[in-house]
Amino acid sequence: MTSDPSPDRYLPLAPHDFQVLLSLLDRDLHGYALIKDIEDRTDGETVLGTSTLYAALKRMEEGGLLEEAPGLGRQTSGGPRRRYYRITELGREVARAEGLRIRRLDRMVGESSLLDGPGAVVAREVEP
Amino acid sequence: MKGRSPLSARVHGALLKMLAPSLGEERIREARALFLELRQDALARGRGAYLTFLGRELRAVISTALALRREARDEGEGGGAGWTDPFRQDLGYALRKLSRSPGFVTVTVLSLSVAIAVSTIVFSVVNAALLRPTPHVAHQEELVRVFTGTRGNHRGPMSYPDYRDLRDRSGTLQDVAAVGSRNFAVGPAAEGTRQIWGLEVSENYFQLLGIPLALGRGFLPEDVASGGRVVVIGHNTWQRTFEGDPDVLGKTLVLNGQAYTVVGVGPRGMVAMDGPRLLEVVVPIMDFREERGRWALRVVGRMEGGTTLPQVQAEMDAIAGALQEEYPNYWNHSGQDPTRLQVLSARDARVPEGAPLAALLGGVGALVGLIMLIACSNVANLLLTRAFRRRTEIAIRSAIGAPAGRVFGQLLTENLLLFGAAGVLGLLATWWAASILQSGGSLIPPPGLEIQPDGRVALFALCVALGTGLTFGLLPALNASRPDLVRALKGMTPVLRFRLFGVRNLLVGAQVGGSLVLVLVTLLLVKSLSRARTLDPGFDPRGVATLEVDVSHRDYTEAEGVRFFQDLLARVESARGVESAGYADWVPLAGGSISFGGLEPEGYERGPQEHVQATMAVVSPEYLEMAGMRLLRGRDFGAEDRADGPQVVLVNQAFVDRYWPGESGLGKRIGTREGKEEYQVVGVVADVSYRELASEPGPHLWFPLAQAYRSDLILHARTEGDPRALLPVMRRLVAELDPDLPVIRVDLMDRISANATRPQEVLSAVLGVVGLLALGLAMLGIYGVVAYSVGQRTREMGLRMALGAEPKRVMGLVLGEGLTLSLIGLVPGLLVALAASRLLRAALLGMDPLDPATFGAGLGIMFLAVLGASLAPGIRASRADPAESLRWQ
Questions:
Q1: Which residue, B26, B239, B401, B492, is the most exposed by fewest CB within 10 angstroms?
Q2: pLDDT tens across B262-320, in order?
Q3: Do the chains contact at A53 and B24, CB–CB below 8 Å?
Q4: Which of A32, A46, A50 to mutate to test the interface with B (most CBs of B within 10 A)?
Q5: CA distance linking residue B293 with residue B66, whole number of Å
Q6: Closest partner residue to A80 among B22, B23, B29, by Cβ?
Q7: Least CB-CB distance to B34: which of A32, A47, A58?
Q8: Residues from chain A contacting residue B27 (CB–CB below 8 Å)
Q9: What predicted TM-score, i.e. pTM, was given to this entire model?
């Protein structure tokens, strides 16, 4: 769809989209495995709803960040064909760019006094 | 494995299609498959996980729909061609309009969805119990039930030899199967058993019904020839006991202390043919295959193609005639009441005869209709008010040329949207409530009843939502789409107001009347329950521990059984804390009953058609005293009543009053119609409520255990302390005597005998909730109308106060208006309540359905509710600043 090659155009990524891309970095997965993988990696903190997942997949598929993995789809008994998703080169670049962005953010948080003491956040809000 | 996806998945799919169509067909299909997989996972982790899952999915659908819409707007710059189509336009307008009155939307949608949920839940129970075809059974229209019929019982069971004759002689039925209910203690006694209900069936059961087994096979004649220790298990037993092992066939399941080989696994959701209870254990019939007197089996047949029910009935009449000739002792013993064979279609047979259940469900259905009416009148009123408030807006739209049809369509869209949302919410609530009911076990539905809402239930909810939406949405829409333009634009509409107010008055009247009915019926039930609790049941179940065993599970002979029971009793009596102990074969008020028919009380002239019968129990000596039953005259059973001694019986006072009025009853003889037995009355006992908690129990007999051996007995022990502490002790004492004898059940006597009032308790709890909801809705309705009318009359009120009327008087005016309003509904409501209470007579445990105190209290509650609802508008009116209100408009 898009011809703009710059990965920065997609930033910041929605957290769910980023999680999906992270899961797909090393292997192609279908929907069920994606949800489980994200749940495992985040220790159960992030559990995607099915519609959230498919909205993310639609968005990123249309944005060219991922594609259907050819040939991997298997017909499971009775159910519809399971589609496997694969990250594209662009997707990889976007994920990297997002990773770098988060790392920069992390550095900024570390350098600030944001997390210094338990009352720090509240105090800062009251100050001005 | 399942042909149809579960309701939650269908709702999820439908919501996605409706709210997020831009995902595309294929993704929605995939999402649905994924939903099913995740649902399985969540189910496996328990109910909490499942509910979390459902909540997450619902939130995800909504946030996805919103996100997709936002994206589409950002991209498409102002929508696209779609928004010019009038319906979409109406929808968009309606959504925007509604989102601006969240309070109105919340009240309408909530009250409607509660009403829809309540009626849909009731419908699901009826659906599961009576309407839904039995799952997994093929061609049910061909199935018939055959009963034995006598004057007293039209749906009697039959014996195995009778069944065999019927099967062999029938030409109109392709095949006939016999079914008996049995309780099984599952598991080795040493590991603690689990009590489960199951069936014993003739070998052809699965073939005849066409039940497709998930694994293995049904029964074969060879199974019976080789001892019949084979079992077909249900899905749950397979999953729980065998952990879903695919190699379960050939494994062993211990039932009632015997090892059975698993030969088959039933399909998921397999239920019994004649009652929608989940079926977990099915074994072949092995006992009493030759006893023609042992009538305990139910019979189902499959008709030959092209045969009609009357043809089958004609053939059964002929077979019954032949059996009466051949076995007069069993089929025609008195010569006056020959046993017939009665054929019913399997569908008709599911509705209980004489149907207290059907009457109860019908009554609840009617009451639920009431709450639907109340909620709908409420919403219709709100809609009317809203339409009325918007008359200026509508008039402007009409004046600048909007066709009347468009204005009408616009309003209808808005109303349908509201009802649609309520329908979806109501269905979700239903589904949620059903899963709670299901897991709640012994609540309203009989255990194992599959009340999971199906397509039929969803359709019902849809019809209710759409039907009420069209009726109650159309009326205000029609009313508002033809306003009197000139008056509306001037803001003066006295004529319209008056007419509109007439409709609203009637609606409020309907609400008040409906809630009065619900409140009165609930009060009646609650009062009858509390009265029943003070009724003397004739025994004292508190502080008694019970334990049930059946020594035939270990093939004891009668002599061995007697010795076992004696040893057990001696040990229990000497256990610490036990005051007294005894046996009985039946706990009063446990539900069900055992009767002895064909009695001939000495000196009693039986009418030609009269059938003398009494409920009966078999008890050991000292049981009566232990159970707190009172001997009025004569003696209790004792050691002198031996198996070979003269046969004796105890009767209750009701028996004496009925058959020997004015006499003591002692020394009288009771014969049986066949003349084989004769019992002498040695004592008279004060009446005991055995079958139901009523002020006047029927005739009852007690027989001594020594003269009426039972292999299945309930040991009772009264203790000074907490009877619960005795339960494990009793279990241990059984195990000491015979470690392999399964204990069928241990429980407290008062818990068992609470069974009798459980339906009433559940009913009054349900009605109580429904009644409160109705009352709340009605108050909301009254408040709405009174507040509205006060608002309309601000000027009048101000004028009155300016001219010197005291706030008190203004207050009285408003309250009086509320009360007048409610009168419209109170009178018809009272009449309906009178009729309804008569229908409920059976559930009232002998209380007068027209109890004046209850009716007084009900009216009082309504009066207070009406006053309460009019109070706020009254206060507002009486505090109004006259100058301010005169300036208004």
A1: B401
A2: 999 999 878 887 666 778 899 999 988 888 877 788 899 999 988 899 999 999 999 99
A3: no
A4: A50
A5: 71
A6: B29
A7: A32
A8: 54, 57-58
A9: 0.54
